[in-house]
Design a protein that fits this description.
Layout (H helix, E strand, L loop, with lengths): L1 H13 L7 E4 L7 E8 L7 E7 L12 E6 L18 H10 L6 E6 L5 H5 L17 H4 L5 H19 L9 E6 L1 H12 L6 E5 L12 H14 L7 E7 L5 H16 L8 E6 L6 H7 L1 H8 L2
Parallel strand pairs: 4-5, 4-6, 6-7, 7-8, 8-9
Antiparallel strand pairs: 1-2, 2-3, 3-5
Length: 305
């Protein structure tokens, strides 16, 4: 009986505990430890998988507490077998390398898988005006259902974050909470940054993209959309922002919008290389294979001690 009680105590100390099924993903190519929580329930959005990456020296005795990086499109981060492109970011390798060099703070990563509602969840709709032509010209995917960014963010901050903080040894304060995404996931990260400034210290958007609804209409409409962020950016003394964008000819429209957003960020007293970094890469929209090469840059910028 004593042995059983002792074994149970050890299990609680050394294994993360959630209220749903968990799987330890064992693969020799994964650096650190990867746990998968399947079909995480929510009262706001559809269930989805969540991956939690722990560094190799994660202290299960509570002697060390960790910052947390929340990353969208979680199935693309660590394991190519589940990535919808067949390629992964290599986030575990990048984190492991930077941690071994002492270049970033001790951090765990929470990879939030997307669902068939990805674009509906990742498209902020704060500045859509039903009086103008935007609604008429929305592509089919935007017309198929109401966008749901607010519900998605509630899932993260009202359900997922409290569960992560109660199940792992984390630093729960704003100074140790970060978010990152690629493409439209960079945009929802920016939206979260403006709406939850007391929760998130820094964000990174890789290969930034903007709602396709605007691309064939007047430039002024997308700029009004971007103006929303110019009005609600949080205090630059407390926060950090990283963006990068593809410089290919096919991406000229997104480049122009990123330049306009950068102007808004500088107007809010953010300073280049201090609390704001915006870069251009000629990756020809190859996405994961190119993002993998530069992933260390946003990670170091956000997470340096």
């Amino acid at each position: 009986m004593r042995f059983l009680a002792y074994f149970t105590l050890l299990f609680l100390l050394f294994e993360p505990t959630f209220m749903w099924a968990q799987i330890n993903i064992k693969d020799p190519n994964i650096k650190g430890f990867l746990w998968r929580y399947e079909k995480v329930p929510s009262k706001f959005v559809a269930p989805r998988n969540v991956d939690v990456w722990l560094p190799e020296d994660y202290k299960s005795d509570g002697s060390v507490k960790y910052s947390v990086l929340y990353v969208h499109d979680g199935q693309n981060l660590f394991y190519p077998a589940v990535s919808f492109s067949g390629e992964e970011w290599g986030l575990d390798e990048a984190m492991d390398s930077l941690l071994r060099l002492g270049q970033i703070r001790r951090t765990i990563v929470v990879g939030i898988w997307n669902t068939p509602s990805r674009l509906l969840e990742y498209t902020p709709d704060d500045k859509y005006n039903p009086q103008d032509s935007v609604k008429v010209n929305k592509p089919k995917w935007e017309m198929s259902a109401p966008t749901m960014p607010n519900a998605y963010l509630k899932f993260i901050f009202e359900e997922l974050k409290p569960m992560i903080d109660s199940s792992f040894y984390t630093k729960t304060d704003m100074k140790n909470t970060f978010m990152m995404g690629a493409g439209m996931a960079g945009l929802i990260s920016l939206n979260a940054f403006c709406k939850y400034p007391d929760v998130i210290k820094g964000i990174a958007g890789i290969g930034m993209q903007w709602p396709v609804s605007f691309q064939e209409k007047r430039e002024v409409e997308i700029q009004r959309y971007i103006d929303f962020y110019g009005h609600y950016l949080p205090n630059p003394a407390l926060h950090k922002i990283y963006f990068d964008v593809d410089a290919s000819h096919k991406n000229a429209w997104n480049m122009r919008q990123q330049e306009y957003l950068d102007e808004q960020i500088y107007a809010n007293a953010y300073q280049a290389n201090k609390n704001f970094l915006s870069l251009i890469f000629d990756d020809k929209l190859k996405q994961e294979s190119e993002w993998r090469k530069r992933l260390g840059i946003p990670l170091y910028f956000l997470l340096k001690p």
